[in-house]
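WP5 quarterly update. Target: DOD-type homing endonuclease domain-containing protein. Source organism: Candidatus Yanofskybacteria bacterium GW2011_GWB1_45_11. Length: 278 aa.
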Amino acid sequence: MVEWSIIGYNTLMPRKWTNQDTLTYRRQLIRLYSKENLSIFEVGEKLGLSYQCIFQRLKRLGIKISPESKKGYTNKRSLNRLQESQDLAEFIGIMLGDGHISREQIFVTLGKKEKAYVAYVIELFRRVYACELKCMLNKKGHHVLYIGFRNLVDYLLSIGLVMNKVKEQVKVPSWIFRDRKYIIGFLRGFFDTDGSIYKLKHGIQISFCNMSMPLLDNTRTALISLGFSPSKISSNRVYLTKKKDLLRYKKEIGSANPTKMERINKWVGTEVAKPGTL
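Structure tokens (predicted):
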């Protein structure tokens, strides 16, 4: 396995493991992963490394990867039949924004300054799925919420979510369009992760940004179904600009992300707004 060493201010070169490196890493991972029975994520958190790096080290060193032996592993969880709800729709919106699905786990990555929203998402997940998301900080200081839950992964894939949202051009699950409350939940979750509000020269604008065109088209359809007048898709975004739309969005949908809701309250419906973006 190749790792990287810094040899100058901005220059990186690969460094092969020495025999001592191999021995050290093997002992370290056997102790943490096998004897202490920590998950790959937990080992990474303890060593200050990404879970991808830990996974590759385990493979390189021939250490058996056995997630089924870890506390709370997916196959030891059961998933009760989920009822369609506004909370579930909101979580789907979050997953379509900043979520990711692997074969065994789901992740939601949130910003450095979104600690309050992290707590909200954990509570929302608990209400919907009756279990707990774990949280770790990655190298960039972002909050990564995650859980190993194979039955949940299978469920999310069965309703149309995908592992590669851009490559597979994900869209909104059709059941969300059956109820106005579900649409509101989805829009709130999606805005809180992939949305922004900022000041224009002569007003305020809300945007939804994503690299999946079907998802943006669905978002536009959702807004229209609620009586809003969104823009056409432009530069991977859908916009709300009309003052009456912004006022209605604030009142009827809002945000569960305190940072974004603070910006909405400060700007929408006021005559003076300071420049900035979120």
